[in-house]
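Re: the request from the purification team.
They wanted to know what the chain is likely to look like in 3D before they choose a buffer screen. I agreed to run a prediction and write the result into the notebook, where they can find it.
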Amino acid sequence: MDLTFTTAPLRLDPLAPVFAGERVRLRLAPALSRRIEAGRRVVERVLKEGRTVYGVNTGFGKLSNVRIGDGELGLLQVNLLRSHACGVGRPLPTATVRALLVLRVRALATGRSGVRPELVAKLIELLDADVIPVVPSQGSVGASGDLAPLAHLALALIGEGEVEHDGRRMAAARALAAAGITPIVLAAKEGLSLINGTQVTTALTAEALLRAENVARHADVACALTIEALKGTNAAFDKRIQEARPHPGQRVAAANLHGLMKGSAILASHQDCDRVQDAYSMRCAPQVHGACRDQLAEARRVVEIEIDAATDNPLVFAEQGEILSGGNFHAQPVAAAADRVAAAVTDLASICERRVENLVNPDLNFGLPAFLTPKPGLRSGLMIAQVVAAALVSECKSLSFPASVDSIPTSANKEDHVSMGPIAARKALQVVENAERVVGIELLAAAQALDFETKLQTTKPLRAAHAALRERVAKLDDDRILAPDLEAAAELVRTGALVAAARKAGAKLL
């Protein structure tokens, strides 16, 4: 994909293809290049005047009171990258690191970091050639920037560390040579500007958020299929009920559910039955799904501010010719947003699992066979699929304890309060992945239950979603190994396939 950064605000949606794995060709509008140049002129003026400024000609952290001689400023930056490249754990996925590079460019393009235009151009060269640094996922506490992982990212620019290129992991120097890229020689402040920032926390949180928003839409489709299969009612989704308590997310979820079920022959067939109310997991779906949506909306607000922000320290203000030290590298706003995503999606997964129980439990499913198999007893059907959903929800609950309330002092107590942002973001991603599987299980169970209805049809959008699922997963007649089915259903959720099918069939899903 092609992406051009301008002075207009950057929103999250244009970045979605990058998180989904697309390569990106990035360009800067001339106005941004001028902004970068103006910031660099301030740094060079400070050096020329012999002023002492943190990060420009001093040590770092506890060593900030050590003045560095002009002849060693380049070595200072290289040493900074080498000493801070001590990340551990599994490498971040390639797509995540691509997005991380994009966010690094965006942050430096604010002109507040004081780097040379050549440095930003070199980052863009890496993206264009798809030379993607290998970045360990652990080792940052989310303050003073995501130092350790960003140091691994930055090493590639000077031809050190490891990268992925042409589908292989190799030494950065080898990859740069193969791609015809000359390593950069760092100038004053540039090493610090490369590792100061919240971009690891932000990239992971942004990915979790985009996937969570997709999960929420699929949960609405799954819920509508479940209600149809259980011959429930859409009365609770009446617009008047939502207007009496007008939370935005609740109104959207109710509108989605009501629209998906509107005109259903199944629904019409039992409007005069003696059942008055459905279980909370169906009747209160707008309230629970909607609360999740509202929390995700707040997280999106935070993330979209952050992806456009200057998170370096110190910051350069070319307008006044000043360099100011501050704390924009502290990831607390994004850490809290990541924790918000994890908690909201956990509750969404929880209500989905309860609907699975309603589908498979013969005491609750209103005449459907136990565990949705034609011969219960001889066959177990979807019995253990519900157990898997329960296990995943329980794991989500454990992962939902907020990381952002924790802090461990670092750097000889100079950095005495930290955000734990990358930890919060990684947890949020795991919760979302679990939820994709739980929603997939509900979709499998609801589709299986609907297959027992042979006389009446559900709505066109729900039939389309059902058909899209059946293209990948056959109806369960005899017991079979279900793990591939569960994974296929989760993949359909991840790719947005069932929402896309419902929309193509006329559903106005938000």
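For the purification team: The chain has a mean pLDDT of 95.
Please add any questions underneath this entry.
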